[in-house]
Amino acid sequence: MPVVRIATRKSRLALWQARYVARRLQEAWPDLEVQLVTFTTRGDRILEKPLPEIGGKGLFTAELEAALREGHVDLAVHSLKDLPTEMAPDLTIGAVLTREAPHDVLISRHGLPLDRLPPNPTIGTSSTRRAAQIRLARPDARILPLRGNVDTRLRKALDPQGPYDAIVLARAGVVRLGREDAITQVLPFEVMLPAPGQGALAVQCRADDERVLALLAPLHDPATAAEVTAERAFLQALGGGCALPVAALGRVQGGTLTLTALYVAADGTPYRVRGQAPMEEAEGLGRELAMQVRSGQSAVRSAQSAGSGQQAAVSGQPTADSRLPTADRRPLRVLITRPPEQAEAWLARLREAGYEPVLYPTIRIAPPENWGPLDQALHRLSRGGYDWLVLTSANGVRFVWNRLQALGLRVPADVRIAVIGPATAKALQAQGREPDLIPPAYVAEALADALGDVRGLRILLARADRARPTLREILQSRGAQVDEVVAYRTLVAPPDTPPPLDEVDVVTFTSPSTVQGFVQALGGRPLPPGVRVVCIGPITARAAREAGLPVHAVAQQYTMEGLVEAVSGQRTAVSSEQIADSRQQIADSR
Q1: Where in the sequence numbering do the catalytic residues fall?
Q2: CA pair distance 450, 213, nearest whole angstrom
Q3: Do 168 and 67 fall within a single domain?
């Protein structure tokens, strides 16, 4: 009987991973005998210092690689994110297994998500990548080092007297150890991109061991391999290991690889890049995006140098004309009322269009008060109990898919999915599913019409708690059996400080809830006459008018691009008002 010896560390997670690979090997080769050989690495022994200070993630692999070279074992199982990007030529990755969901998770003794933790929260992590992204989402956070295996970290996180308000871990390890109950929040990729290779298992062997390479072939997942190859190529091209704040996420859909990557500079500046290529060109895509980051840094440094020189050149008493705030001299300042986890793409798009966004979230997105109705519906969905799943927002996609993952369920391939709008479609595509239906207009009435004859069809409508009942009512009136369940809540939760209306030119609203939160924050104060109001669609505009706000523009397309176009139309009006005000101020000063 052929024998294969697997090298593994002794932690519970490492043993789970090794046993999982052993089981997969024996499923593929029933006559194969698999033996586990355990090791204690230097990374397991030194727990009092962060990894970058003691040599990085290679400390977890050196002993296992030495055993491979010496012939004591035939293969070693690693979390791919722990495997250095540089590998000796006598060793190779023989198989990359289908990855677990690569999210990071927040675990908090308060039971609160990241955006609701107490002021100045202490968050445990020894990862520079996680620390950098936490600071982007919560600038008031204090980062404390955290080492130890998953069980040790969970114990520290949940200690009522411990130093941590929360910690951040990879979801894969928590799930593999059966500790989903400890997860407070699955962090969305908009907030926390994962480490390159996170969630994937790599099986390492000797490069010339043809017997073992043949045994590993059935375990290899080409799509996952393409994703992690691009991610690791991005990291390697930036010259980084675990000490560099680098994150990357590859996704393969229909043979096309999409890579989203992030580098956070020492001054806190985030450089986010995105690109696509055939999955066969994964390594080249990763390197190309790394070059874009390097070019972006150079451009920023050049602009800063030129800016300081220009400032010195024009210093002195300005003329009257130079004091006029024309659109060319100062970008339009646009207030965003969406919550931070929804605002990232909107902020980036506004900056790209030449505007200066100001984030002032007036709502907060939260899980349902009771998961029961949604869980029951998702179990029914997984058993084929519905003909259609209808999702009306990107938040709906995120909460439904996170809950499916938590329950270990999937949407059957024969269940059709309808979405409202390109943002919701994009969120669904990020989960590996293409929408079967997107209506021509992004409102409930258009979606109901696009569904056509629904008599007798079973439809699951997963929505926000504040959603209009219109869609359900129309579909039921046309003979559909509709189960409407709350997938998430929209809470009106404006900041304690009033909106910075003296600092903005345009206020944007993307839902009636954002209007309600903004009006609550105003506290009865009037909107300054020079501030313009732009709404994403007629329903939001009606809510604004009913709240007593003027509406200067409504997007023609109820999308981010439509909103940008509506904001653009305000530039002339704002600039004219600014110039008139400035001329009056200049005249008054003479």
Answers
A1: 82
A2: 51
A3: no
d(CA 388, CA 458): 7
Full DSSP string of 529-553 = TT-EEEESSHHHHHHHHHTT----E
At 573 the pLDDT is 57
- Give the structural domain span for 177: 104-186
Number of domain units in the chain: 5
| pTM for the full predicted model | 0.53
What CATH number does residue 111 fall under? 3.40.190.10
The DSSP symbol for 437 reads B
Residue 155 and residue 88 in one domain: no
- Residue 501 identity: L
| Closest by Cα among 400, 346, 343 to 371 | 400
**Whether 443 and 539 share a structural domain:** no
State the CATH number of the domain containing residue 333. Answer: 3.40.50.10090
- Are residues 149 and 82 in contact, defined by beta-carbon separation less than 8 angstroms? no
- Those residues whose C-beta lies under 8 Å from the C-beta of residue 580, and which sit 6 or more positions away, are none
Q: Around 116, how many Cα atoms within 13 Å sit in the side-chain half-sphere?
A: 16
Domain presence at residue 318? no
Amino acid at position 448, single letter: A
Task: Check pLDDT > 60 for residue 43.
Answer: no
Q: What are phi and psi of 382, to 5 degrees?
A: -65, -25
Residues 6 and 59 in one domain: yes
* Residues 6 or more apart in contact with residue 161 via CB below 8 angstroms: none
Which two tokens mark 411? 């949407």
Single-letter residue type at 114: L
Place of tokens 């969120």: 427
Cβ atoms within 10 Å of 344's Cβ, excluding its own: 19
Residue 260: pLDDT band with limits 50, 70, 90: very high
| 155 phi, psi to nearest 5 deg | -60, -45
